[in-house]
Amino acid sequence: MSLEKARQLPHKAWDDDVLESKNRVKRVLMVIVLKVIWAIAAVGLCVLVLLHSPKGDGLGALGGQAQLFTSTKSAEETLNRATWLLLIVFMTLTVLISGGWLDPVATVPAAVPPTVP
Q1: Burial of residue 86, with CB atoms counted within 10 A of its CB: 0-12 exposed, 13-18 middle, 19 or more buried
Q2: Which residues contact 103 (CB under 8 A, 6 or more apart)?
Q3: Which positions ≥6 away from 93 have C-beta within 8 Å?
Q4: Which pLDDT value is given to residue 6?
Q5: What angle do CA 25, 27, 29 make, to 5 degrees?
Q6: DSSP state at residue 9
Q7: How much is the pLDDT for 40?
Q8: How far apart are CA 17 and CA 41, in angstroms?
Q9: Residue 97 in 3-state DSSP?
Q10: CA–CA separation, 88 vs 92, rounded Å?
Q11: Distance between CA atoms of 95 and 38, rounded to whole angstroms?
């Protein structure tokens, strides 16, 4: 077959395969990035909860964290906001990841018509 005839042939099936492959790679990368953000949010949430001081100084006194702010109340408000933010990020990603909606290998099976014997 000559090169000119090969160029005239429709390559829709090949193009669809390449497009599907590229989309699958994008989905896999997206899931990996979301899982990394989820893990960072989990570790950050643990650290922030340990930094809270319910009655005493908590672990925040070890690093002198309260000295970075103008007052203890300001430090506590900032810790509360950061904790709530990470909690929302963590819980949202937990639902998305565990729900299977982002599963890169999940495919919808094609409907197979019943065969009549």
Answers
A1: buried
A2: 31
A3: 34, 35, 37, 38, 41
A4: 52
A5: 70
A6: S
A7: 96
A8: 36
A9: helix
A10: 6
A11: 11
CA distance 35 to 93: 8
Helix then strand then coil, % of the chain, to nearest 5: 70, 0, 30
Where do the structural domains in the chain lie, given as residue ranges? 16-52+60-99
The secondary structure of 43-86 as a DSSP string is HHHHHHHHH--SSS-GGGGTTTGGGGSSSHHHHHHHHHHHHHHH
Cβ atoms 31, 100 nearer than 8 A: no
CA 36 to mean position of chain CA atoms: 7
Tens place of pLDDT for every residue, the chain, 117 residues?
455 555 555 555 556 666 677 788 888 888 899 999 999 999 999 999 888 876 555 555 555 554 555 566 777 888 889 999 999 999 999 998 888 777 655 555 555 566 666
Contact 79, 51 (CB under 8 A): yes
Q: What pTM was computed for the model?
A: 0.61
What's the confidence (pLDDT) of residue 109? Answer: 53
